Amino acid sequence: MTNKHLDWAVLTILAIGAGCGLVYEYLLSHYAGRVLGAIEQAIFGIISVMMIFMGVGSFLARKIKNPYAGFAWLELALAFIGASSVLLIGGAFSLAALLPQIVAETFSIPADLMPQGGLVASAEAFARWMPYLVGALLGTLIGMEIPLIGEIRSQIYADNLKNNPGSIYGIDYLGAGVGALFWVFFMLSLEVSLAGALTASVNLVIAAVFFYLFKEKIPGMNYLLLGHAIVALWVLQVFSYGSDWSAEMEDMLYRDKVVYHANTPYQHLVITERIIDPEKPGILTFFINGRTQFASNDEHIYHAMLTYPALAASARQDKVLIIGGGDGLALRDVLRWNPQQVVLLDLDRDLVALFKTPKIEQGKVLNQRLIAANQGAFNDHRVQTLFGDAFISINNLIREGQLFDTVIIDLPDPNHPDLNKLYSVRFYQKVLNVLTGDGAMVVQSTSPYHAKNTFISIGKTIKHAGFKHVQQFHHNVPSFGEWGFSIATKNGLPAKQRLQNLTLWPVDDGWTTKGLVLAAFEFGKYFYQQADEIKVNRLGSMVAYQYHHADWQQEIGLYQQ
Fold this sequence. Notes:
The chain is α/β, with parallel strands linked by helices. It is built from 19 helices and 13 strands.
């Protein structure tokens, strides 16, 4: 093989390695966000840590005397750590979750005195740092690739002038870009341990090709071959059993047994089950990215309070728009009002499919209880389901001139920068354009107890968008605690007065009463005392996101004002 061909082979290996490195970076940050719960911090934090330690790795590469042996062993190390990264992080969190029970059982400590400080707190802190430690290690290894390849190319040409660094960085950027696209369009929806094993397999392949090309320059070939065999066997084990291991470790992170988990292109879905009475169906709890969405024993309370006041306050209920609510539970409650049409707009097609289409495995419908929970609402002929980013997709409804008697917004809390725009003045102005003049809009508005500033900001933002009347109400949902909603009308009377004027409570949903709903509008005497200091959330200002982040961080005691 000529030097030119050999050089192209080396550059191709570098490009593929760069793609693998980018996949590891995205995979690790994606998984860290899931287990840490603070998605935006974890993603940006892991990427920052890995970039810093890639620089450290570049400096450390100068210490390697034989670049051929160094690169060969480097790819093996990347394959091993890459395939193990998710298991290492998951294992640390699982151990931290299990440690209190181990200590309690060892020392016969009563369940109501479960240990929380000392060793338990240290284990929890170590688990929270584990994603960053693994990221630092992977970043260091990835950072060593370019300097080693540069030295190898210099030796191939025996002339530094011919070793153009631009070729190295150019091919590295191209490889990383392809790796990023591969992650987004193929690997994002894979189970994380499987994605790690697939990427590690690619590292093994390029390590084997590199060894074949330069075996005469690599001392200790037998040890390297043994390392290949061991790492290959480990990657095969992760590929075969990693999903089961991850599922078992994930079970430990939840109070109840995990009965279903899946990745979609947008989020991680988990369903747990708690058996209280063996003679009755267990309680299902649905989580998205580790955050509770509903529990089957009390979701009717949340969805009744979300839907009933707005529907009852609207002059008609012929045409209803639901933004979010991909589980179909709000849709189920809306259909009780006998509308002529309901349009549901959600981002995640896979989430809706989980609550709509039977998933059959070995003759058993795995999601039968989920479909039963919304009473097959998605299959009602009056329901039209649209998919897309609500901030953009609502423009289509505006262009078509569609108007809705009631708009129900059931989106996740603004706990991520991408969600902030859906709580902005601009978004509510768009909603204003699709609401009839005598209709009502309601917005899920997080907890007025745990996230008071966020709650008040949402109400003020809706008012600033141009709604004539904006009121807020709250109710206790056992799975969430105290939860809040904002209701707005475009013209005429405010929603509370419309509800007060009702002489007949229109629909019997088995929960709401006129007195219960009207009482929900009452807050403590000084609840809104500092409302003037709360800011309106504008597009790009990140006010709702910042308030939400600060409110919940303070609530769990991570810092104090």
